[in-house]
Give the backbone structure.
Amino acid sequence: MRITAQEEYGLRCLLQLARQPEGESLTLKQIADREGISSANAGKLLWLLGNAGMVRSVRGVKGGYVLARPAPEITVSEVIGVLEGEVMEEHCRSFPGNLETCVHTGDCGIRPVLNTLHQVVRQVLGNITLAHLIHPEEHVSEQLFQLNRAPRPQSFYTQAQS
């Protein structure tokens, strides 16, 4: 499974909000600047996430964006679902071959493998909330291992030093 830039930056925008003390908002510009993306891109992501009930805008002098639900209630799976849609459905609809549709749409031995893979990934990501991700990388890795018995990945910084 591949996480798109839109999904990653959507998660990052949400994490900016999750790190804020309760009741404190961030402006669109603050979020965009902190993540190194354009205000237009951040605005699009927050609009999508707002329509899904994950963020809300606050009007006024101290206005901006806040999480609409507590960070422990928003899962990574849910965020990705909002920002990317159903990947498995698209996988079987899009076809890079010479024909308009895949010759295996009726009977495909690969589809159960892909479906299972997507279900496992969805399940794992469904156990991870924004509250898990606001911690330092080492802590997040340990939490992922505890939650899912996932392998402990080497830190990006550890790999770069090797």
